[in-house]
Write a structure and sequence with these properties.
binds adenosine-5'-triphosphate, binds magnesium ion, globular, single chain, 32% helix, 23 strands, 14 helices, alpha+beta, 5-stranded mixed beta sheet
């Protein structure tokens, strides 16, 4: 992609309304634009990151055996009356009337709708277990939308819903998501700690929040430092191995970790002093087991092996991809800008032409772009007619993992410069050796 043809509205000034670094950097790097309070347009660079975050989430959901669907954003109030949540949900729910005066709403979550979909199709234990997930926009009329996409009103959520015959089955479904979440956050370059959490309006009694430690986080958390060094389950983990998964979950819940709502000061005091962390964190995921809370009132029943009908046991499992984009920046930036982990970078390489208009430099850049792209790397080629200083600053700001710097002086010696954004390390390479070096 040539920058001259792209849409990258970089801001020179630091926007005053942005209180935290990720919000400032997302605005400055032209990733998002606020359209109303807590409602954002995703511009190309931001969208590229969001899509990559979703791709990792999707790959790990699929690996765990969950199946993707896509439900509408607009739901009928009738459905929410069946579960009794329509009145209970309160002001965070955006209620809408259509032209026939029918009560509708913009979904803040989808337990009711997915239960309706399930009950229409599945009647027997033979069709269980099932886990259906989607990645879809949600709306919650937050009292205090802030920090950009960290707490917005319209936001993207990956929400999965599991259906099992009994509690033991549901526990295994919960464990699958638990392990999938550990892998997902690790692949995104984050250290997420599962913490005992309250279930809130979703209901139920078994719940963990996945928390990234960050000073700007809105949650107050208490945990054992040891979690930061716990090994993440391997890609080859067998999701059908009931005892194996339970072992992983037991290990990852063996030390103290709780959000402020679930905090037990006495239990925390028993953690060795050097291991104790009272910190702030960002909730990036949340998993719940809530039994028959929705299946019972909504009549989602299946016949068991004994011929008896019973309500299915359910769980729900959320991740916030749009919040994650901000959380990744909170965890990975420096004075000069964003430092994208390779797995989510909007492009792999920033190609900087230090003398646009110089025939030899232009030709070298065009051929490098072609070779890198042919090798499967994504390239943002800064072909603008700008000073080198401005190009260096933009490249550092948008944080692509590699910078390939091409100027007439270097080319005269048969060399170009390669810079790793994360470390600042620079090396000279011959253009012919570049693809091999980056592979
Ligand atoms: P919070 O405590 O931050 O308000 P929540 O507990 O209300 O979040 P859940 O209902 O657990 O959120 O939703 C699942 C996930 O959706 C959260 O873990 C978070 O990653 C994401 N999420 C929730 N609310 C927002 C929001 N306003 N903006 C961006 N992401 C959000
Ligand atoms: Mg909330
Ligand atoms: Mg919460
Ligand atoms: Mg939550």
């Amino acid at each position: 992609m040539r920058l001259s043809r792209y849409f990258l509205p970089i801001l020179r000034e630091t926007p005053k309304e942005a209180e935290i670094v990720s919000h400032r950097l997302m605005l400055r790097a032209g990733m998002i634009r606020q359209e109303s309070a807590g409602i954002y347009a995703w511009l190309p660079l931001g969208l590229a990151v969001l899509n990559r975050v979703c791709a990792v989430i999707r790959a790990e959901q699929d690996r765990s055996g969950a199946v993707e669907i896509l439900m509408p954003t607009i739901q009928s109030a009738e459905l929410w009356r069946e579960s009794g949540r329509y009145e209970a949900y309160g002001k965070e729910m955006l209620r809408i009337r259509d032209r026939h005066e029918r009560e509708m709403l913009f979904g803040p979550t989808n337990e009711e709708m997915v239960t309706e979909i399930f009950r229409a199709a599945i009647r027997s234990y033979k069709d269980l277990p099932k886990n259906l997930y989607q990645i879809q926009w949600k709306f919650r009329d937050e009292v205090r939308p802030r920090f950009g996409t960290m707490r917005s009103r319209e936001f993207l959520m990956k929400d999965a819903y599991s259906f099992d015959l009994d509690q033991a089955g549901a526990r295994h479904a919960y464990n699958k998501m638990f392990v999938a979440y550990l892998r997902t956050f690790a692949r995104l370059g984050l250290k997420a700690i599962p913490m005992r959490a309250e279930t809130g309006p979703i209901g139920g009694d078994l719940s963990h929040e996945f928390i990234i430690l960050a000073q700007t986080g809105e949650s107050e958390v208490f945990c054992d430092r040891a979690y930061l060094d716990f090994p993440v389950p391997a890609a080859g983990t067998d999701f059908d191995d009931v005892a194996g998964l339970q072992g992983i979950v037991d290990h990852w819940t063996s030390r103290y970790a709780a959000t402020s709502e679930m905090h037990d000061a006495d239990a925390f005091a028993a953690v060795p002093e050097a291991e104790r962390m009272a910190a702030r964190g960002i909730e990036v995921g949340h998993i719940f087991y809530f039994g028959t809370k929705y299946s019972e009132p909504m009549g989602a029943r299946v016949t068991g092996p004994d011929g008896q009908e019973r309500p299915v046991h359910m769980g729900s499992y959320g991740i916030g991809p749009s919040r994650l984009v901000a959380a990744i920046i909170e965890a990975s930036h420096d004075e000069a800008g964003i430092v994208w982990p390779d797995a989510v970078a909007p492009f792999d390489v920033a190609l900087l032409n230090l003398k646009t208009g110089d025939a030899a430099t232009d030709a070298a850049c065009a051929s490098i772009q072609g070779e890198l792209e042919a090798a499967g790397l994504t390239v943002l080629y800064d072909d603008r007619d700008e000073r080198p200083g401005a190009k260096f600053a933009s490249a550092d700001l948008i944080g692509l993992p590699w910078q390939v710097i091409v100027g007439p002086k270097g080319l005269a010696d048969g060399m170009i410069e390669l810079k790793r954004r994360a470390t600042g390390a620079r090396e000279s390479v011959a253009p012919q050796a570049l693809v091999e070096r980056l592979r």
